[in-house]
Structures are given as structure tokens and as C-alpha cells.
Design a protein that fits this description.
287 residues; alpha/beta; 21% strand; globular
């Protein structure tokens, strides 16, 4: 394991065994700066990678409707993996869902019941392909203008009136420490879904069993005949861990969660210092 950050100017840096065919990068805390913009340097690096024949996939926990920040910077195929692997969307076609891997309603209800018992005070939001709806106690992080507020049991009920698939269940606790809340939730509800987190607060993201950034990225790569060793991935939070483990070459950002830094052999500069762009530039220079 490499503990020191590999600075962009360091001559002796890691390079993939072969010229990569695909770059997979998280957005928030990774590709995006803290103000949620993409720097000119990063825009240029992404375009240069595509021009060199390297496909770029944005792989994020964001829903499709929050992808405007990078919509102009996706080239070639135009696809992005959203909602932690639950949706593949076409950014060239307005964020249309090409593939959805839903969290079943009964599984979501089972998670709600398990967390209410294991961590009283938890509040929930239900994210669907076209909207997100909230419990009244859920914090107003990014509330949709047309959101409905109701108990999770009603939002997930058979008679809720919603027909679009559930891509994520969100669970927030006002007092728990984030990693401790994740451990408690996995223990209580892990039989019903995949639990992860990407927020600095005690906010969990729950997908259907077997659904992650890694599993959907692996499917997209298999469709293209791309092997894991031909993929370079970037991330910063626990919801990136499986993807970083799957990719042949993985980089943690300098600002990454300690578990991500510990799990990756290769580190790059922080998101505020264009760490993704620095690695892409080195890859292209190595040809």
C-alpha cells in the first residue's frame, strides 16, 4: 500500500500495465471541485482522453436529473452510471434511463422497518427515476420542488400512486456518527439491500442487493469487451470502494475517506487540485 500521495509532478509514478481503454470517475469530491464545477484543466484532460480512444464513464451516486454539471463534458457514447449503479443514463438524450436496476418496494420497506428498530430517529427519502420524496423529518439537503412529504411506509405503499422504479432509499440520522450508522444499518438491514455512504453526514444510500457502482460498471465494460485491467478508476468515498477494488488501476483522491485511502495503492492530488486530470495527463504522456 502506498501511504504518500503521488503528486502530479513526481517523475516516478504508477502507470497502468497497458494503455487503458476506459476511465471511470466519481464526481463529487473526485472530478468536481468543491463548488461543484469542472475546471478547465479537467475538461481538457477528459476531451484529450476521449480523443486518444479512451472511453470516459462518470460513475456517481447522483440521480440523472443532477447531471447537468457534466452533461457538456461527456463525449462518444454519452453514457453515465448514476444512483450508485442503479441507472445507466444517456446524457446525449436528456438523461434518459437506458437501464434501471431497481430497489424493490418490499425490500425498501423491510429496510425502513429494520432501521426504525435498530436506529430510532432515522428519517427516509425515496429516490425514483424521476423524483425524490421525503419524510417530514428528513433534512432539506436538495429537495425537489414537487416533492411529496409523507411517512416512508406511505411513500412505499402499494397504493402510493408511483409507478417509476425506486433507485435508492436514503436514510438519515441526526445524531449518529456516519461510519457507525453505516455499520449498524448493514447489520440490521443488510439482508435486504446494499448499504453505503458518500456524504460527510450520517446519510446512507441503499440500493438493491448486488447493485453497486462496480457491478454496473463491470456490465458496461463487458458489453464493450473491456477487461478490468484496462480500466482506471477514481474515487473518494465508501460508495466508490467496490469500483476501486474492481478496476485494474485505482486512485484515491488526497481528500478521500480514510477507508478509501487505505484500500488503494495509488493516490493522486485532491479534487480541488485537479487530481483526476493530473493522472490522465500522465497516462497520455506515457504513450
Amino acid at each position: 500500500m502506498t501511504s504518500a500521495i503521488e503528486q502530479p509532478e513526481t517523475p516516478a509514478v504508477h502507470r497502468p500495465a497497458a494503455f487503458p481503454r476506459l476511465i471511470a470517475t466519481d464526481l463529487d469530491g473526485t472530478l468536481l471541485r468543491d463548488d461543484k464545477t469542472v475546471s478547465e484543466r479537467t475538461v481538457a484532460a477528459l476531451a484529450a482522453a476521449e480523443a486518444a480512444g479512451i472511453e470516459v464513464f462518470f460513475v456517481t451516486g447522483r440521480p440523472a436529473r443532477w447531471m447537468d454539471v457534466v452533461r457538456d463534458h461527456v463525449h462518444g457514447h454519452g453514457l453515465a452510471i448514476c444512483a450508485n449503479g442503479a441507472a445507466v443514463v444517456d446524457l446525449h438524450d436528456g438523461g434518459r434511463c437506458v437501464e434501471v436496476r431497481p430497489l424493490e418496494r418490499t425490500a425498501a420497506l423491510a429496510v425502513v422497518h429494520a432501521l426504525r428498530a435498530a436506529a430510532p430517529g432515522t428519517s427516509f427519502a425515496v429516490e425514483r427515476t424521476g423524483s425524490t420524496h421525503y419524510e417530514p423529518a428528513y433534512p432539506p439537503f436538495f429537495l425537489d420542488p414537487e416533492a411529496v412529504f409523507a411517512p416512508a411506509e406511505k411513500l412505499l405503499g402499494e397504493d402510493s400512486g408511483y409507478t417509476d422504479p425506486i433507485v435508492k432509499l436514503l436514510a438519515h440520522h441526526p445524531e449518529r456518527e456516519p461510519d457507525e450508522f453505516l455499520a449498524v444499518a448493514r447489520e440490521a438491514g443488510g439482508a435486504h439491500g446494499e448499504f453505503t455512504r458518500s456524504s460527510p453526514t450520517a446519510l446512507l444510500e441503499i440500493s438493491g442487493l448486488g447493485i453497486s457502482k462496480a457491478s454496473t460498471l463491470a456490465r458496461c465494460c463487458a458489453e464493450r469487451g473491456i477487461a478490468p485491467e484496462e480500466v482506471v478508476a477514481f474515487g473518494d468515498m465508501p460508495n466508490d470502494l467496490e469500483m476501486l477494488d474492481w478496476a485494474g488501476t485505482a486512485y484515491a483522491m488526497a481528500n478521500a475517506h480514510p477507508d478509501v485511502l487505505a484500500a488503494t495503492a495509488h493516490h493522486t492530488a485532491a479534487n480541488t487540485e485537479d487530481g483526476v486530470a493530473a493522472v490522465i495527463e500522465r497516462i497520455l504522456d506515457s504513450r
